[in-house]
């Protein structure tokens, strides 16, 4: 908001000077006005009363909108199948047609055939829920550890320690051998005995 003509005239009559949206006293000091947000600020009660006395602008009347008449619903013709629901096994809700009404009679016969087929069709049983996986227990974990230990121990006894040391970790895992030294300690047992070459028999010196 800004200072209106009526407010400016009232302030000048009270001995104030208006510069823009700022009100100055006789000494030239700012004593009130409107800030950047359009709000009144003042250190004088008289200035505040003058700034607040301005009539608030009224909103312009909006033009009247043409009112539309609601469409009138057309009457719906009654169907001879009124009251029939899918899955019913009775036809009491279907009206019987009189003589000469072949269309309603055909509708009735078609509905009776559909109802008889629906009644004869057996209902399919609901699928059984999938069984939940059993969570491992302490005993199952111990059994798995013993089985793994037996497998590693059997593989350990099939090679020598030198042969095992020359293999890569991938080859050890592929052959079912302990992969790391700690796995070898876990497996227990011993390595395959290394074959030592037999000493050659020395030729006897007969002195000939």
What descriptors fit this protein?
4-stranded antiparallel β-sheet; single chain; 36% helix; 4 strands; flat; alpha+beta; 7 helices; 208 residues
Task: State the end-to-end distance.
Answer: 140 Å
What is the 3D form? flat
Evaluate the radius of gyration.
Answer: 53 Å
Strand count: 4
Describe the structure in your own words.
By secondary structure, this protein is α+β, with helices and mostly antiparallel strands. Among the domains are: 5-52, no CATH class; 141-187, no CATH class. The protein has 7 helices and 4 strands; from the N terminus they run H-E-E-E-E-H-H-H-H-H-H. It has a 4-stranded antiparallel beta sheet with strand order 1-2-3-4, with helices on one face. Helix 4 (138-156) crosses helix 7. The chain is flat and about 155 Å long. It starts with a helix and ends in a 21-residue tail after the last helix. Mean pLDDT is 75; it is low at 87-94.
């Amino acid at each position: 908001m800004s200072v209106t003509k009526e407010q400016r005239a009232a302030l000048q009559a009270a001995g104030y000077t208006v510069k823009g949206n700022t009100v100055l006293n006789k000494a030239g000091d700012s004593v009130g006005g409107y800030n950047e947000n359009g709000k009144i600020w003042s250190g004088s009660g008289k200035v505040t009363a003058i700034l607040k006395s301005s009539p608030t602008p009224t909103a312009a009347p909006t033009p009247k909108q043409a009112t539309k008449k609601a469409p009138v619903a057309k009457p719906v013709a009654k169907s001879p199948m009124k009251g029939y629901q899918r899955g019913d096994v009775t036809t009491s809700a279907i009206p019987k047609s009189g003589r000469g009404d072949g269309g309603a009679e055909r509708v009735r016969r078609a509905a009776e055939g559909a109802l008889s087929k629906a009644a004869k069709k057996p209902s399919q049983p609901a699928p059984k829920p999938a069984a939940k996986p059993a969570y491992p227990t302490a005993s199952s974990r111990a059994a798995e550890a013993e089985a793994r230990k037996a497998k590693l121990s059997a593989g350990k006894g099939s090679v020598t320690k030198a042969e095992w040391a020359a293999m890569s970790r991938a080859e050890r895992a592929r052959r079912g051998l302990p992969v790391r030294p700690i796995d070898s300690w876990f497996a227990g047992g011993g390595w395959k005995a290394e074959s030592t070459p037999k000493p050659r028999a020395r030729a006897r010196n007969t002195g000939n």
